[in-house]
Give the backbone structure.
Amino acid sequence: MKIGKYVTIDPTAIVSDDCDVDDYVAIRARSKIGRGVVLKCRATIGHDCSVGDGCFVGAHAILLNGGQGASHIGNRVYLGACACVLPQVTVCSDVVIGAGAVITKNITIPGTYVGNPCKLIHRSANFPSLKTTLHSESTYISEISCTSDPT
C-alpha cells in the first residue's frame, strides 16, 4: 500500500493492502476501501462508506476546463467496482453508485446512480437499511472483478 503525507485513516476503517492513498486524504470511521483503489490528493471518504475494487477518486485527472480540485464522498456511500469520481466532484450522503460508473458532476440527491456519465435511476429516502446491508456482509459487494475472464 502506498500512503502519502498527512493522511488520516480512522482506526475503524478497513483499507486493502494494494491501495494508492495520496497526500492529505481522509478516510472516516467504519469505511471499507477495496483492492486496487486510488484515492488522489485531498480526497475525502465519509463514514460508513464502501469503495469497491478498482475505484478511482481523483483530483489529479486534469480536465480540459482546468479542474483539479479535490473530490469528496459523503457518508453511507457505496461505490461499485471500478467507479470513477472525477476532480471537483462531491457525492452527497446515502448514495449508491453502480459498478463502472463515471461521476462527472456533483451528486446532491440520495439515490442510486449508474452509467457514464452517471444518472439517477432511483431516488430513495430509505437508506438506513443500506448501512445495515453494506456492513453486515463480511465481503465487499464489489467482488465482481473490473476485468472479465471467460474461464
Summary: Residues 144 and 150 are 13 Å apart (CA to CA). The two ends are 29 Å apart (CA to CA). The chain has a mean pLDDT of 82.
